[in-house]
Every structure is written in structure tokens, then in C-alpha cells.
Amino acid sequence: MTTTEKATKRITEENTHAPTDRAQQFKEGLRDGVPIALGYLAVAFTLGIQAKEAGMGILEATVMSLVNVTSAGEFAGLAIIGSASSYLEMALSQLIINLRYMLMSFALSQKVETTLSVPHRMGIAFGVTDEIFGISAGREGRLSPFYNYGAMSIAIPGWTLGTALGVLMGNVLPESVVSALSVALYGMFLAIIIPKAREDRHVLIAVIVAMAASWICTKIPVVREISAGTRIILLTVVIALLAAIVFPVNEEGDNHDRPVS
Amino acid sequence: MTDLCHNVWIYIAVMAVVTYLIRMLPLTLLRKEIKNKTLKSFLYYVPYVTLSVMTFPAILYATRSIWSGAAGFLTALFFAYRKKSLPVVAVCACAVVFLLELAGV
To answer: By C-alpha distance, which of A99, A195, A176 is closest to B96?
Structure first.
């Protein structure tokens, strides 16, 4: 692989973080990862129940969650396994449903240090989920990979364990608890969006338009048949592009929260 | 599973490879800072727009009733506006949903 060759070249010039900063970043990632892990536990629990229904054993379901870490993708994957569709269909469905991760990975590529080594990039790439992306995009300044590792080190076990428990215990967890936990992820998303919208009026407008458009798209006949994954990609591209054209960010790029002089 | 043509482990491997490539390629291939103003602005808005689209209206349908979902949404909005940390906002939203549903909403 040419990327690994480049990696070895890069490593020498890598801007390494001081050990204390790494530990601090990891700790903060771990802290912000806790609510993600709790939310994952609940969602993965329902995934585990479904995996069992699709004929999976605990080992298969647990490994699936460990190596994929994607809710919508895995739910769709189970449907495909259950109906014994082709491997090609499996690949295509994952590509379409998870295409939003490409946008997120693209955005993160601009958030990390340009000198960050390929192994670190490959490392954080494994943990690009809606939620971990959300908290890392909300970080001030450049993103340290150790922040992501911290979040991943609790969120991924939460996701995997939740799946295993779902297969094992089925409907043991009271429905009321599952119901309440299911808003945790959205609560976190709002905790990322709202403070930014409060300080940047253009983000606020983009957020309101995005939510309104998303809501309308679930109401309009035909359009509402589009899967959630596709709707998220289409709306994100269209609205973010419109926002970029109407409200371009200044030359300094205020995504790094530099003080305005 | 008894289907001989389709092995569960191959399904899982296909899923994992496709999903990882999607996540990994942009991060590893795009190593320079983008200079194009529109593209830069686009990427600046992507996180907030995509999280908004994912949150609403999905939060309304995540719980057992649309009203508890809406209450969870408003609670999260309130605490997020007060700039509370991620766990605090998430836990408060969960607590409101749990209590409301306990009360039969």
C-alpha cells in the first residue's frame, strides 16, 4: 500500500502531542463517550434482539457489532442476511446507508492536523459514527486523535456489549428504560448543535432549515419513502452547500474558533 | 443458518470492509487543508446540518409517545442553550422522558 509508505515518511515530521496533553485528550474523549455508550447500549440491545430473530448466534452478532459500529447499517444488514440476499446487495446497501460517514470523514480530515500520520487517521476512521463524529466536530480547534480514541474506547464496547446482551436477554430491560435512553443520542446532538447556533447566526439558520426540511421530507408522499440514510445525505449536501454559497465562512475559517481581530 | 450459498461470516466481512473504506478513504487521502472557500464553508456547515437532519423529527418518534419525545427535545434544547455539557443534556432529556412516561404521557 502506498499509503503506508507515505505513513512512514510522515511519522518523522509528525507534530506529536505532549504525553500529558494526550492523556488529557483521551480523558475528555472518555468523559464525552459515556453518554454515547449508554445510548449505544440501549440501541444495540434492540439490535441484538433483531439479530437473534435473523438467526444469528451471540458470537456472530457480537462480532458484527464490533467490526461495523453502525446502527442503521447493521439493521439493514440483518434484513439482508435474513432474506439471504446476495453479497453484492449487502455491499451496495452498506455503501448507500453509510455514505454519510464519507462526508463526516471528509469534514474530519480538515479538523485534524495536516501532519497527522496515516495510522492515526486510519485509527480514528474506525470510530467515525454519527455520535463520535458529532462530539469530535464540536471540539474547539484542531482535533487530537486521542480524544477520539478515548470516546471509542468506551462507546464501541458499549455498542458491542449491548448487542450481546440483546441476543442473550431479549426483552429483560423494561421498555420504559429503553424508551427513555433512546433520546440520549439526540440530546447529545443538540448539545453540539445549539451552542454553536447560539454564537453563529448562519449556523442557526442552517440548523432551522435542516430540521424543517427533514421534517417536511418525512411528510411528503413519495419523498417520505426514501430511506433515512439517503435522506440524511441528500439534505446534508443540499443545505450545507446552500449555506456555503449564501453564507461563506471568512478567510480565516471560523471553524477553528479563532478570535476575530 | 442452513443456507449453503451464503455464509454469515462473509456477510459480516462484506459489511465491515465496505463500511470501513467509506470511513477511512477521505481521512487518509485528503491530507491537505482545503483552500477553496465554498468547499471549506460547505465542510464547516456539514456537521451541524447533518446532526440537525438526524435529530429532527427522529427524536419525536424515538420514544413510546410523540409527546414524551417532544418533551425530551425541548428539555435538550433548553439545557443545550444554557451550554450544559453533553452528558448533562443527554441525561436530563432521558430523565424527563422517563418521568413523563411514568406519569402516563
So the answer is: A176
Taking the alpha carbons of B49, A179, A162, A143 in that order, is the dihedral positive or negative? Answer: positive
**Chain A touched by B48 (CB under 8 Å):** yes
Q: Is residue A193 part of a domain?
A: no
DSSP state of A139: S
The crossing angle, in degrees rounded to 10, of helices A87-97 and A71-82 is: 160
Q: Which of A100-109, A176-185, A214-223, A233-242 bottoms out in mean pLDDT, i.e. has the lowest?
A: A176-185
- A126 contacts B23 by C-beta, under 8 angstroms: yes
Are the Cβ atoms of B72 and A186 closer than 8 angstroms?
Answer: yes
Q: What ipTM is given for this predicted complex?
A: 0.84
- The verdict on A118 and A82 lying in the same domain is yes
Instruction: Tell whether A145 and A235 lie within a shared domain.
Output: no
Question: Is B83 an interface residue toward A (CB < 8 Å)?
Answer: yes
Question: Which pLDDT band, with edges at 50, 70 and 90, does A77 fall under?
Answer: confident
Tell me whether residue A110 is exposed, middle or buried, using C-beta atoms within 10 angstroms of its C-beta: 0 to 12, 13 to 18, 19 or more. Answer: buried
Beta bridge partners of A112: A143
Of A77, A196, A228, the CB nearest to B48: A196
pTM: 0.70
Residue A137 is assigned to a structural domain of this protein: yes
Alpha-carbon distance B66 to nearest alpha carbon in chain A (angstroms) = 11
Residue at which a domain ends, from A112, A146, A181: A181
Distance CA A55, CA A257 (A): 49
Q: Are residues A125 and A48 in the same domain?
A: yes
Residues of chain A neighbouring B100 (CB-CB closer than 8 A): none
Q: Which of B32, B46, B88 to mutate to test the interface with A (most CBs of A within 10 A)?
A: B46
Question: Is the preceding peptide bond at B57 cis, omega within 30 degrees of 0?
Answer: yes
